[in-house]
Amino acid sequence: MSARKPFVAGNWKMNLERKTALGLALSVRDSVGRRDDIDVAVFPPYVYLDEISRALAGSLVKSGGQNCCDETSGAFTGEISPAMLVDVGATYVLIGHSERRHVYGEGDELVGRKVKLALEHGLSPILCVGETLEQRQAKRTEQVVGEQIARGLAGVDGRALQARVTVAYEPVWAIGTGLNATPAQAGEVHAYLRGVLAGLYNEAAAERARILYGGSVKPDNVRALMAVPGVDGVLVGGASLKPESFLPLLDYR
Ligand code: 13P
Known about the structure:
CATH superfamily: Aldolase class I
Structural class: alpha/beta
Radius of gyration: 17 Å
Bound molecules: 1,3-dihydroxyacetonephosphate
Distance between the termini: 14 Å
């Protein structure tokens, strides 16, 4: 059995209102209770993070930011620093999410700086990688995710990788489309990514790093995806927005 603890994360993106967000966080908290066989985290919009982190304090459910700035402070209108996320109770931060890369044009160099700064401030980054449909059809998946992970982790040492970094494989074509990667497709890319980690660091570090799958994860496909040996958890968008579709994901076995 893998020593990697399963991790189920809900990325709420730019959804929910204050009240529904808080209600959802509370039902996740109550459902997880004292269960410690799984890690669970929610990623609310920034403006709700403070209130939700307070509501989750003392529970086993953690919170995180959906993004952060690559600068510490200063004249960066509209940005949020890693220290601010820590200040309002965040444990994690998503970095290089597909929508940041493809809608807002974030590149690997910026992503790498964010990962480094997040670690320096004590956050646990979740580095997201994934290929577009075009790239997959051109058989460039491995090249694309390999570069994303190597550049995203530039300057991160093996100890930080093992202790605090999570990788999320989210094929762009599977996000919000209802078309998830098959367990075989996910398994191939996860195995490839773990091999890249072994090359960048070493086998032991690669074996300990968690790699999540994201892209149209739902209660009816979570079991098959989680059964893939290299899939250590799921990063969930749409299905994380309601207790009835998120809570069943915690019982994927
Ligand atoms: P969906 O689960 O809605 O496809 O979104 C996946 C995602 O982008 C999670 O970060």
